[in-house]
Write a structure and sequence with these properties.
about 700 residues; alpha/beta; 2-enoyl-CoA Hydratase, Chain A, domain 1; Rossmann fold; N-(1-d-carboxylethyl)-l-norvaline Dehydrogenase, domain 2; 3 domains; 8-stranded mixed sheet; 7-stranded mixed sheet; globular; binds (S)-3-Hydroxyhexanoyl-CoA
């Protein structure tokens, strides 16, 4: 065995050379890996006793892509293209042996090998689109030559990971190796290739599948149309599509040049920078400064949920999905049966789309038990309360849980804004109490705000975060304050949206501006969807707000066919003259003359106060880092990924500008705009949130 460098070894097994990469955690193509590959391939090619070459990786995965942390830094070492050329033009067969994931540049390297073998658990994909770029090392030109244009389009624009069985079917890999025996199988495969004198098959020369699509621009037109909604606002999907078009319409080398041009366009743009930031921010959230990775965790084998409403049911599904038994408790049998029925319907819908088998549905339903007795939660390791959002009710539930739950159980509340510390006072074990704030629909939304109380113990926090990961959520640890991180900032936006309407904008103007910014919908369309009557009590309604009046008129949102907007039978919305009239009357009564409000002002008024609030949250230590706040907003509230989150956006537009606006509104409109001390400090120091340690 020869060490080519610290991450690459070259060894021989008879007349087969084996190049082994070992660059944890994911064998990303750093300068060291590229240099190692180049050196090892050159040596193996030069050695006349070598008949074929196997490329294999140590650790949990094959090469998972270019090293994203090198992006934007001056290039060092061998280029990826040199490495690829060396492999593809090798005069002896090269076999890529894949386990874990061959992603991005990793798959692109494998596509330069003449043959590919993988274990059944392996996956292949080109996920560059998720970081705002495209596979820029030949992936868009080689992939369609193997899997065909439609599948290549789907893969590069979704970034999906395709399992080995499907890869075998599409030709992306040539052979499956028995699990755990990749090296032996790859060596045997290489020997077979040598003994059968198989050709040095280069993907670049396989033109049949791309030629089949030539002269059929409708393939691309239809693909664009079918995915328009999903791609809205993002630059990367379009350039990925164009690169595949180039593969179809241009000779290989010309196609590569076009791929490069499209890649650079994305790579140097602001969206890729933001999406790259989000990639690392998503991984940062799990790092908790005062809770080391080795903090003891509590076992969670059985979960109890109180409340079978939309929230409780959605939460239960998360656990059943990963094989954890759940008991849901309700007060009334009818409500319990209704809740269980909704869960079953959700699963059946997924099965109807082919994403679950009937057996999966039965298995998951089999893990969910209903009960009318709180006492049945006595043996649960984690109990999550999802009852009505009123402090007295929550405290009553927690006092009972304190009597019922076994010692060591975690007592969690799904409250979206109530004080966890106060809830904890209802128990004699405040160290076991924590907030687990799921977002609706809880079985779909990725965000979970884990709210640490003053007395919550470290093992309880560590377990709640681990559980978040286990059920496929992105857990963000936050502190106790009204609305925590997400809803606390949302309140700023909602208040300004309402005020803008009083000053002269229409709800649809505000919605349009936020939609165009990249949110899935604006605040008024959102209220109509959720129901305007959430938290509205008919008996107490005095027509004091526009919402009160709409609800009093039974315009309670989409469900009643009208809210801020009017809706047709297909729930398409259009601006409502009724709402317009109500707004005019409100303005007249308040003595306000409507003024023309520019889109730019709407955006700044909705978003800058959120950034300011985010700064206060950081100042108070309610979020660990600015990027955690961004992750909350991207995953819980539909903030567009390509704008990086509110704090990232603040840095991007310049905190000086944000502060300037806050100061001027503070003067003209009062204390709700008071700039955060942290914002003032950062501006004075010429820094951004990104500079905070
Ligand atoms: C590309 O290839 C461009 C090309 O077309 C060439 C153009 C010229 N780079 O996710 P995990 C780190 S673009 C640097 O928690 P898992 C990650 O930050 C790339 N670092 O593990 C984390 O660090 P830490 C295309 C990377 O088991 C640690 O590894 N490829 C990279 O849940 C563990 O990561 C991709 O986009 C990287 N490429 O999932 C694949 N990848 O521990 C991106 C990971 O300090 N990667 N790290 O926080 C993934 O999807 C997942 O990491 C993977 C493992 C599925 C591989």
């Amino acid at each position: 065995m020869t060490a080519i460098n610290s991450v690459t070894d070259l060894s021989k097994d008879g007349d087969i050379a084996v190049i082994t990469l070992n660059s944890p955690p994911v064998n990303a193509l750093s300068a060291g890996v590229r240099d190692g590959l180049k050196g090892a391939f050159d040596a193996a090619i030069k050695d006349p006793s070598v008949k074929a070459i196997v490329l294999i990786c140590e650790g949990k995965t094959f090469i998972a892509g270019a090293d994203i942390s090198e992006f934007g830094k001056p290039p060092k070492g061998a280029s990826l293209f040199e490495v690829e050329d060396t492999i593809e033009s090798a005069p002896k067969p090269v076999v890529a042996a894949i386990h874990g994931t061959a992603l991005g540049g990793g798959l692109e390297v494998a596509l330069c090998a003449h043959y590919r073998i993988a274990v059944p658990s392996a996956k292949c994909g080109l996920p560059e689109v998720n970081i705002g770029i495209l596979p820029g090392a030949g992936g868009t030109q080689r992939l369609p030559r193997i899997v065909g244009v439609e599948e290549a389009l789907a893969m590069v624009t979704s970034g999906k990971h395709v399992n080995a069985k499907q890869c075998l079917a599409s030709g992306l890999i040539d052979e499956l190796a028995p699990e755990g025996e990749l090296r032996t199988a790859a060596l045997a495969f290489a020997r077979k290739i040598v003994s059968e004198a198989r050709p040095l098959r280069k993907v670049r020369d396989q033109n049949e599948k791309v030629e089949a699509a030539r002269g059929h621009p409708e393939i691309f037109a239809e693909f664009r149309k079918a995915h328009a909604r999903q791609f809205r606002g993002f630059n990367a999907p379009e350039n990925n599509i164009r690169a595949i078009e180039a593969a179809v319409n241009l000779p290989f080398d010309e196609g590569l040049k076009e791929e490069r041009r499209l890649f650079i366009e994305l790579f140097t743009g602001p969206q890729a920078a933001a999406q790259r930031y989000v990639f690392f921010a998503e991984r940062q959230v799990w790092k908790l400064p005062d809770i080391p990775d080795d903090t003891a965790q509590l076992p969670v084998r059985k979960v109890g949920i109180i409340g079978a409403g939309t929230m409780g049911g959605g939460i239960a599904m998360n656990f059943a999905n990963v094989g954890i038994a759940v008991t849901i408790v309700e007060v009334q049998d009818a409500a319990l049966q209704r809740g269980l029925g909704v869960i079953r319907k959700n699963y059946d819908n997924t099965a109807a789309k082919g994403r679950l088998t009937a057996a999966d549905v039965d298995k998951r339903m089999g893990l969910i038990k209903g009960s009318l007795e709180l006492e049945s939660l006595g043996d649960c390791d984690l109990i999550i309360e999802a009852v009505f959002e009123r402090m007295e009710i929550k405290k009553e539930v927690f006092a009972k849980l304190d009597r019922i739950a076994k010692q060591g159980a975690i007592l969690a509340s799904n409250t979206s804004y109530l004080n966890i510390d106060e809830i904890a006072t209802a128990t004699k074990r405040p160290d076991a109490v924590i907030g687990m704030h799921f977002f609706s629909p809880a079985n779909v939304m990725r965000l979970l705000e884990v709210v640490r109380g003053e007395k919550t113990s470290k093992p309880v926090i560590a377990t709640a975060m681990a559980i978040a990961k286990k059920i496929g959520k992105i857990g963000v640890l936050v502190g106790v304050c009204p609305g925590f991180v997400g809803n606390r900032m949302l309140a700023q936006r909602q208040r300004e949206a309402q005020k803008l309407v009083m000053e002269g904008a229409m709800p649809w103007d505000v919605d349009r501006v936020l939609y165009d910014f990249g949110f899935p919908m604006g605040p008024f369309a959102m209220s109509d969807l959720a129901g305007l009557d959430i938290g509205w009590v008919k008996e107490n309604s005095r027509g004091e707000t526009i919402r009160d009046v709409l609800c009093e008129m039974d315009r309670r949102g989409q469900k009643t066919g009208a809210g801020y907007y009017d809706y047709d039978e297909k729930r398409n919305r259009k601006p409502s003259p009724v709402t317009e009239k109500i707004i005019s009357e409100f303005r007249a009564r308040a003595g306000i003359t409507a003024r023309k409000i520019e889109d730019g002002e709407i955006l700044e008024r909705c978003i800058y106060p959120m950034i300011n609030e985010g700064a206060k949250i950081l100042e108070e230590g309610k979020a660990i880092r600015a990027s955690d706040i961004d992750i909350v907003w991207i995953n819980g509230y539909g903030w567009p990924v390509y704008e990086g989150g509110p704090m990232y956006y603040g840095d991007a537009v310049g905190l000086g500008k944000v502060l300037d606006r806050m100061q001027s509104w503070h003067k003209s409109m009062g204390d709700v705009f008071k700039p955060a001390a942290l914002l003032e400090k950062l501006v004075a120091e010429g820094k951004g949130f990104k500079d905070l340690k």
